[in-house]
Design goal:
The protein is of the alpha+beta class. The chain has helices spanning about 15-30, 30-40, 75-80, 95, 120-125, 155-160, 200-205, 255-260, 305-310; strands at about 60-65, 105-110, 120, 130-140, 145-155, 170-175, 195-200, 210-215, 215-220, 230, 245-250, 285, 300. It is built from 9 helices and 13 strands. Bound molecules: ligand MTE and molybdenum atom.
Length: about 325
Amino acid sequence: MLIRLKKPNEPRPSEITDHEFYRARRRFLQGGAVLAGALLAPGWLSPPAQAGRFAGKLEDLAKGPFSTDEEPTPYEDVTSYNNFYEFGTGKDDPAHNAHTLRTDPWSVTIEGEVKRSGTFALEDILRPHPFEERVYRLRCVEAWSMVIPWVGFPLGDLLKRFEPTSRAKYVEMTALYDREQMPGQRCGVLDWPYVEGLRMDEAMHPLTLLAVGLYGEALPNQNGAPLRLVVPWKYGFKSIKSIVKIRLTETQPRNTWNIAAPREYGFYANVNPDVDHPRWSQARERRIGSGSLFAPRQKTLMFNGYAEEVAHLYLGMDPRKHF
Ligand SMILES: Nc1nc2c(c(=O)[nH]1)N[C@H]1C(S)=C(S)[C@@H](COP(=O)(O)O)O[C@H]1N2
Ligand SMILES: [Mo]
């Protein structure tokens, strides 16, 4: 079944606003630590995670393929423990700070090796694509992981619409650059804007998702509203948030974490328990929301558990060289 976004410019009924506000607030109030935060900072009581036209509930989602039946990480953890350096380097910074991101209006430029390049309103980018729910594991390079019910559609479906040329070998994606909206960009911790890239076959793989929501709702800002990538067999940093540009290229694009520390972060970044990060083991991971910091860690799986789907993409490549 298709799910419908509200039409652009259609005013949002106040009942929905109130309902969403209530739900968002109730969720936030459910956590004691958060309650203290809310009392100290009244800003937290305004919905922290609204996404303009796409705000609110995304209904009647078909369950997409590749979904894991593992227990999803609680919504509170998914939306309060984030990496999004545009809003600070602490895990709780994005949830505190990302309310300054304006996701409406939003446009996306598609350019490079495509026959139909241009800059398009987000709703025009999304309109032809039915959304589905896909419950994916996502593992951060920092050895923690979550299970998230994403809402989105395959990136490959979108790329096909813009007709890649025969020279298109890679896809480069760029996040928003705006120092007013993204205060973390005033500090040079990373080379802004955040960029990421995939090989064309990785980008076209049916597992690779463009996400617009999670837990049946539009993406909270801290999770990369209004449009982000989800590549579940790669370390989390490949899953770029708040995308404004998609460029198809003939040569391998650079990616932000590789620029920052080329010895530590490669282009491929495939989850691999046998290839350690230079400063820590990648053999195990901590599942966020599954108890205390000291809860036993679980084994990390090759390709984060998606080997059956993607291992063939890397046959003949040395994972120690192409990390
Ligand atoms: N634009 C942008 N995208 C980003 C990041 C970032 O700092 N900026 N961090 C990445 C990292 S390291 C991870 S682990 C995931 C986290 O996604 P989540 O907060 O939705 O779990 O986002 C990725 N996408
Ligand atoms: Mo990460």
